[in-house]
Design goal:
Largest sheet: 7 strands, mixed
Number of helices: 13
InterPro entries: TNP-like_GBD, TNP-like_RNaseH_C, TNP-like_RNaseH_N
Number of strands: 12
Number of domains: 2
Helix content: 40-55%
Distance between the termini: 25 Å
Strand order of the largest sheet: 7-8-6-1-4-5-12
Pfam family, one: TNP-like_RNaseH_N
Shape: globular
Protein name: Transposable element P transposase-like Protein
Strand content: 15-25%
């Protein structure tokens, strides 16, 4: 592998397992009960490989675990340059322990003394933006209001008159706990299509709020395009890999950085940034700094930013669930399924509820090695 291919992003997240006691025959011990399985995935920032490298039960990520993983990867010449997680309480606690916030978005690699940049998972952030928009709405720095009322009026227009926006329906606006976890619904609601429909039809009596909300949604859609690129070239500059149209991409990121820093959820303190805002700000700054480092150290020309999201873990968890009848397998069953996935030639069919785009062509390193060695 080249130096580019050995440049690593670490993603970590938890998945629910069935809580029960089990007997591990091989270890001759009783295991459990546990509720959550922590999984760490190492992934090439520029190559086409990934590999789960750590699992732990009812174990939150800590600096000591993270540093141990980074050091072990360094021993075999893999260089960690970024980490990604969601904005859950345990992960925010890790950020604090690493002295990371929206202003200082990196910690020092214990082996190389170079920066490792922290990212919040962009699809998770998109869901949070959607949830806060529906639950509270936002007030911008200039006093403009962003809320769900124009979206409700747009739905009524779509439902009763003409199909001005095929993507939006009542299910996008009445977000129950299960739908809050669905990034596809969030991406459809906060899409360029919906934003443009608001700007074109200006539904409801408050034209200004319709225009403000439409512009905000269009801006969010472009931000998500920048943070979720899969290929070097896209249909518009914001859909290209980051760095291909750097000036235009940074212009929009700088605009969104100011928006996220200055907007406030309606009814909340005007002096406090919410957790999702801090994650948004942190990720923008991390992306710009990481690209500068990669361009300087490795002559990288662009970054496909989905590599800085948790889609690899979402797909992995879907593969685990699809390997048997129980959506939440027991710890020992989960371990057995992981062995099948990472050592087998066919990782399995993804479940229908995955929150990711099925465009992932990465191979598990262990499976690739087994196939190359022709071990059956």
């Amino acid at each position: 592998m080249s130096g580019l291919e050995k440049t690593v992003v670490i993603a970590f997240d938890e998945v629910k397992v069935k809580s029960l006691l089990e007997y591990d025959v091989a270890a001759d011990e009783v295991v459990g009960p546990y509720n959550q399985m922590q999984v760490v995935m190492a992934r090439s920032l520029f190559g086409k490989w990934k590999q789960p490298i750590y699992i732990g039960f009812d174990t939150k990520m800590t600096p000591s675990i993270l540093f141990k993983i980074i050091s072990e990867l360094h021993k075999i010449s893999f260089n960690v340059v970024a980490c990604v997680s969601d904005c859950g309480g345990g992960n925010v606690g890790l950020w604090k322990n690493l002295e990371i916030d929206e202003n200082k978005t990196f910690f020092i690699n214990p082996q190389t003394n170079n920066n490792i940049y922290m990212f919040a998972d962009a699809p998770h952030l998109l869901k949070l933006i959607r949830n806060w928009l529906i639950d509270h709405g936002f007030e911008l720095e200039n006093g403009d209001i962003i809320n769900k009322e124009p979206l409700k009026k747009l739905f009524e227009l779509t439902d009763s008159e003409i199909n001005v926006c095929y993507k939006i329906s009542e299910k996008h606006l009445i977000v129950d706990p299960q739908k809050r976890q669905n990034v596809i619904l969030a991406a459809q609601l906060l899409s360029h299509t919906v934003g443009n429909a608001l700007l074109r039809y200006k539904p409801g009596p408050d034209v200004k709020t319709s225009k403000n909300t439409g512009n905000f949604i269009c801006d969010i859609s472009k931000w998500f395009d920048i943070f979720n690129s899969y290929t070097k070239l896209g249909s518009i500059p914001t859909k290209c890999a980051y760095g291909v149209h750097l000036a235009e991409q940074n212009k929009h990121l700088d605009k969104m950085l100011h928006t996220f820093e200055t907007m406030r959820p309606i009814g909340k303190s005007k002096n406090i940034l919410q957790r999702f805002q801090k994650g948004l700000i942190m990720s923008i700054r991390s992306l710009q700094l990481l690209f500068n480092d990669m361009k300087s150290h490795l002559q990288a020309q662009f970054i496909c930013t989905h590599k800085l999201n948790q889609d690899c873990l979402e797909i992995f968890f879907s593969q685990i669930r699809s390997r048997g009848p129980n959506e939440h397998p027991s710890p020992l069953t989960a371990i057995a399924r992981i062995r099948m996935i990472t050592l087998g030639k066919n990782p399995g069919v993804l479940g229908a509820q995955t929150n990711t785009v099925d465009a992932n062509t990465e191979e598990y390193v262990a499976a690739s090695v087994m196939e190359t060695a022709n071990i059956n």
